Here is the input.
Amino acid sequence: MNIYRKIADAMQDPSVSAFVEEEKIGLAEVKHIKEAISQKEKQEEFLDLPEGEDAYPFLTYKHSIRDFLRGEYGFDELAEVPKGVDADFAIPCFSIAMIKGIKPQEAAIEIAEAIKKECAFIERAEVTGGYVNIYVDAKALGQETIVSVETLKEHYGASRAGKRAKVVIEYSSPNAAKPMSVGHLRSTIIGESLKKIYEAQGFTVIGIDHVGDFGTQFGKLLYAISQWKDDDAFAKEPVKEMLRLYVKFHEEAKSDPTLEDKGREMFQKLEAGDAKLARQWADLCAVSADDFEKIYAMLGVKIDLLLGESFYQSRIPDVIARCLEKNIAVKNEDGSVAVNFADEEFPSFLLAKKDGSSLYAARDIAAAEFRLEQFDPVKIIYVVGGEQTLHFRQVFKTLGLLGHDAGKFTHDSFGLVSLPEGKMSTREGRVIFLEDLINESIERARKIVAEKNPELTDAEKKEIAEAVGIGAIIYNDLSQSREKNIQFTWDRALSMEGNSAPYLQYAYARAMSIVKKAGDVPVFVKEHIVIEAEQEQKLVRMIARLPEAVQHAQVAGAPHIVATYLNALVQEFSRFYNECPVLTAEGATRETRLHLVRATAQVIKNGLFLLGIRTLDRM
Ligand code: ARG
Here is the structure.
């Protein structure tokens, strides 16, 4: 049951005050989460996860190369392997050439010779221009990698690098009494994936939904309710009725400027704890939260803690007092409180209005302090759209001035999404309901599934359509870099040709069907793995790189690194599949290929899991 329902229920007793109750329930949920965390930590002590890079041959090799370079030449940065070159690593030799006063190519030749002697796992070191391209011995890499996948299974790719440090990730954070927007959908999808990626790197993540459940817009809505509410419509479709009221308020306000003041007054009364308004407020938030939960359930998203902005109310007077005391803020003549930055690095902003009402930024400062105090995180990440960049800079800077380590806060912002249906505007009532968007995706996927595989039962078709339709929406988002504005098109999201969820999901199912047709995959014997054909080598090299992709994605806060990796893996798998017969092969070749297929399936599954996308064995 969501927190607002609990508040509304408790308010059946007239002596209960909404915000006192909210504080109690919120704190109880925080306590519950802390207990769950310590329990999970105890269980995981017994889990045999790799400590860091050492369980993964590819990362171990990389480590050795960098150690060698650092020791011999005083640098250890590797370059990205250029496109079209299928080497495993590339060493850029420009800076060392400069220091030595020789040509980059000469430096590269020297380094290539030296490193071959030092690192036994290197098969070839080729010089092109100022680079050394390193090719590792695919046979050894293959054996070690398959061992790693076979033993770690669903944990392949994970590590304990984060050492259980706590990270708070705030994501989704829609606004109550309004339909969730596509921007919130992005935040939800990106935040959930970041959470999984951080967890896979050994961090303990607390996911928080910072619902916008406070502020003048609630005064406006409460006023609109008092004037124009249609009870029947509200009973049937509360979110649509709230949207209608919101739109109506803004329409009416065009001709009646006093409405804005009436809205403000209503909010002041609510903030002061007016019982009737607070009960209405709790009801509105409760139906909204039900609606959000429906969307989270469709997407398979589970956020640990929902604490709306109103939860932090009681902490704001103290925040303001400290800001005044430390001369971070001043009280203006009209009674409002403003933070001014001495160096004028950012424009000033208000913590409280002249009527004393608290503001968004003040609630954010209180929320940040609460998170620090409760969870002692090494990092707090805000997954919020790019239009709030200035707001977060101001808030983080203020937190720093208050004595907190401002380096702990990061705004992982993202660009806008445009839908084929055009731009949304809540005020004007032009919205796309996310539920409709998701259902349409499922419906379109169902048609594709039925065409591709008519002999499936209806229940199977339904399950596949859901996994594909929802996966398509998620992957469309996560396959593009976070900061970019993205375009949603059905053709791209549901493409079978590549770089889409269905493309990856079908590859997984194909791999699983090969494994199934083979009957028993032979018990794994490392020595039986003999990587020979070129396409076997290429595939195993890709399989070996999942742990690196996960590591990069976490450090960069960029799920698309995992998506890009998976797409490249599946392309390699398709070529392998075309060139290397599996079931008709014999002896060690068959055994090796079967293990490669099974490992590929495992890697696709693990990777898609990190993006929040389901896989099915049969499609
Ligand atoms: N509810 C806000 C909005 O929809 C987003 C909240 C972002 N998080 C925060 N801590 N300010 O714009």
About this structure: The chain has three domains: 3-44+161-414, 57-140, 425-611. The pocket of arginine is lined by residues 170, 173, 175, 210, 212, 364, 382, 384 (CB under 6 Å).
